[in-house]
Write a structure and sequence with these properties.
This protein folds into three domains: 113 residues, Beta Complex (Endonuclease - Pi-scei, Chain A, domain 1); 220 residues, Nucleotidyltransferase, domain 5 (2-Layer Sandwich), CATH 3.30.420; 32 residues, no CATH class. About 9% of the residues have low confidence. The chain is elongated and about 95 Å long. The longest helix is centred in the C-terminal third of the chain and has 32 residues. The protein is α+β, with helices and mostly antiparallel strands and 397 residues long.
């Protein structure tokens, strides 16, 4: 993308906005490799970038998630809807009005548009073309909508041959965001269930225990910032055995103890849940982008993809566009990071242990008979006679 001013530092001209003519900072030219052609019910036709923002009922809505039949605010207050929308996979030069006084809102072709000022404008963290691929390839209606609010969407029921993790983000409690959770198939990095709703923290803790138990006692990872502790405390009080712990100083990943319960947590400097900080947040965002860019993850939820369409870089920080949420995005990013660190390193340790066991040579019968009274079998030092049968001790490692 080429992005530059062709008219900057304007102090002479004004542009029409819903509140009258307002000054603006200039005009910039953008070269895009694809764009939308959108037709409206008022007879107007508009070409715009895939991330161009319109106004719908006073809220920003990106062209990516604007659908046929959706209403947009008009310059005269009349009802205007989208009657056709088409993606054009060819290059185009577009022109944006920037730094409009009163909130960057202005009228264009009969509808109201909204542009960020040049300094704070941002691009989506995940490329829009990649997001469209996911929406068209993997997204599908859930096979079941559960829980009391029908906001628990399931695409796969538990398979007892698989390992899962449940990753949750707890709402702040001010009503502006949601409590969210994803169920992820660890081996295939596939989203198999998702929750997004408004729920009390104690109830959310109970909900997470039930969901994790249902999916084979899944590893439960809860973001522990602020009010998240209330949900975590409920999980601890319920005695859930597979709660995620991480180091307090964030200096290491303890593969033996981070993915167990609370035992020896204080001794090892561990804290329940996952801490999103200035250190870990960039790692989460980087991991999220990597998985999507390489198409190494399977997403079924349109709710998650829609959040990603409005998850942008603003002044170098990845966050939701104003008026939107990123609760599903952050929870999913945490899950991908945990999968690629604590879980991957733990599995490597298990594999190394198995390799070491396989390389141990057997000793003579007399040694084992003398030390253990014939309890071990000479062709496998890790097989022990228990009564009339034999037990393989390596399975406990």
């Amino acid at each position: 993308m080429i992005d530059n001013y062709i008219f900057k530092g304007n102090t002479k001209y004004e542009i029409l906005t819903p509140s009258g003519f307002q000054p603006f900072g200039g005009v910039r030219k953008l070269s895009k490799d694809k764009h939308y052609e959108i037709a409206f019910s008022n007879g107007k036709f508009l070409k715009c970038s895939t991330t161009h923002k319109f106004i719908s009922n006073g809220n920003d809505i990106s062209a990516n998630i604007l659908n046929v039949g959706d209403y947009v605010d008009s310059d005269d207050g009349s009802i205007v809807s989208v009657i056709n929308k088409k993606i054009i996979n060819s290059g185009i030069s577009l022109f944006d009005i920037v730094e409009v006084a009163g909130g960057n809102i202005f009228n264009v072709d009969g509808v109201v548009s909204h542009n960020c000022d040049f300094i704070s404008s941002g691009d989506t963290v995940v490329d829009p073309e990649t997001l469209m691929f996911y929406k068209e390839t993997y997204c599908q209606p859930p096979i079941e909508k559960g829980y009391i609010d029908s906001n628990l969407w399931k695409w796969e029921y538990p398979d007892f041959n698989k390992s899962y993790m449940v990753v949750a983000d707890v709402a702040r409690g001010d009503g502006s965001d949601f409590s969210t959770a994803h169920v992820i198939d660890i081996d295939s990095a596939t989203q198999v269930a998702e929750y997004r709703g408004k729920i009390e923290t104690k109830d959310f803790g109970n909900f997470l225990v039930s969901l994790s138990t249902e999916y084979n006692d899944a590893l439960l990872v809860i973001e522990n910032a602020n009010i998240g502790w209330a949900a975590i405390q409920q999980v601890i009080d319920r005695g859930y055995k597979n709660l995620f712990y991480m180091s307090k100083d964030l200096k290491y990943v303890d593969v033996e103890n981070q993915i167990t319960n609370r035992y020896r947590a204080e001794e090892r400097g561990l804290v329940a849940g996952f801490s999103t900080t200035s250190k870990t947040r960039p790692l989460i965002i980087s991991k999220l982008d990597e998985y999507f860019r390489e198409k190494n993850v399977v997403i079924r939820s349109t709710r998650l993809i829609d959040e990603l369409f409005t998850f942008i870089f603003i002044n170098g920080r990845a966050e939701a566009m104003k008026g939107y949420n990123d609760d599903l995005v952050m929870a999913f990013g945490i899950g991908l990071w945990v999968r690629d660190t604590a879980l991957r390193l733990r599995q490597q340790g298990i594999n190394l242990t198995k390799q070491a066991l396989g390389g141990i040579s057997t000793n003579t019968n007399s040694v084992y008979d003398g030390m253990y009274g014939g309890g071990f079998v000479d062709d496998n030092p890790w097989k022990m006679r228990v009564g009339e049968s034999f037990e393989d001790l390596s399975k406990w490692l």
